[in-house]
Design brief:
The chain has a single domain, classed as Maf protein (Alpha-Beta Complex). The protein is about 30% helix and about 25% strand. The protein has 7 helices and 7 strands.
Length: about 190
């Protein structure tokens, strides 16, 4: 990657921290993009669609040695998408619906240079125990997970006491599938 400048197009502190573990030198560049997707698009395809949409906003600004990195993460259960909760009640409802079930965390990633685009997704299955209302309310009131898809972060208290196991990439659930991302960056 010494010949390229990677640009992370995300305001997520978790993505910034994760990326710093595999790339020592990158910059953050932000641009507001309306995250709108076709309503008939299957849930499994939404994260890649949104990652590409976010990357395309930078297309005309890229220099020859730059790679823009965009991503989007969703939580799905029975083809229903759980994004960031709107408020406390929405967060409670979301965690109650995920409680005692296995859901999927899907992250779409897009890497774009002026002459190459690589887009992929990573899917991780997350198993939640039956969460009590008391546990859910404590978590929401203490950790304020309003900026997190599915109303939770695996690396916080709820993940430690509520997730019985995962199938797949842990870092994907945190917000960026590092193994696949590193392999994709090698293609540049």
């Amino acid at each position: 990657m010494k010949d390229y400048q990677v640009i992370l197009a995300s305001k997520s502190p978790r993505r910034k921290e994760l990326l710093s573990h595999i790339i020592s030198n990158f910059v953050v560049r932000l641009k507001e993009v309306d995250e709108i997707y076709p309503k008939d698009l299957p849930a499994m395809e939404v994260p890649e669609f949104l990652a590409k949409l976010k990357a395309s906003a930078f297309k005309d600004e890229l220099k020859i040695n730059e790679i823009i990195l965009t991503s989007d993460t969703i939580v799905t259960l029975d083809n229903k998408i759980y994004g960031k909760p709107k408020d406390r009640l929405d967060a409670i409802r979301t965690l109650q619906e995920l409680s005692g079930k296995v859901h999927e965390v899907i992250t779409g990633v897009s890497l774009m240079s002026i002459n190459k685009v690589i887009t992929f997704k990573e899917i991780t299955k997350v198993h939640f125990k039956d969460l009590s209302l008391e546990e859910i309310e404590y978590y929401i009131d203490t950790f304020q997970p309003y900026d997190k898809a599915g109303a939770y972060a695996i690396q916080e208290w709820i993940g430690m006491i509520g997730i019985t196991r995962i199938e797949g990439d842990y870092f994907n659930v945190v917000g960026l599938p590092l193994f696949k991302l590193n392999e994709a960056l090698k293609q540049f």
